[in-house]
Amino acid sequence: MTTTLKSQLVDIVDLLVSTRYLAGAVYMAAADSSVSTNATNAIQAVLIEIESRLESAEERLEGMKDALS
User: Fold this and answer.
1) Contacts of 40 (CB under 8 A, 6+ apart)
2) Which of 7, 15, 34, 50 has the fewest CB atoms within 10 Å, measured from its CB?
């Protein structure tokens, strides 16, 4: 694997990790007592979908890394 490609893969991993942290921050904000129960439930449903897609992207990335090495 070339250095440039490896660097790009590391950048993608960093983006996924930072996205996961942002989703965590939204999750914590949704738990605030000023947010209605319906809004909290809706936000948590969206975050579950985001988490699922992040996991899928990470699995695909791992597959790419394995195929390239």
Assistant:
1) 30, 31
2) 34
For the segment 13-36, what is each residue's pLDDT rounded down to a tens digit?
Answer: 999 999 999 999 999 999 899 999
Residue 31 phi/psi, 5-degree rounding, is -80, -5
- How many CB atoms lie under 10 A from the CB of residue 53? 12
Report d(CA 6, CA 61) in Å as an integer.
12
- DSSP letter assigned to residue 34: T
Please tell me the pTM assigned to this model.
0.80
Where does residue 33 rank: exposed (0-12), middle (13-18), buried (19+ CB within 10 A)?
exposed
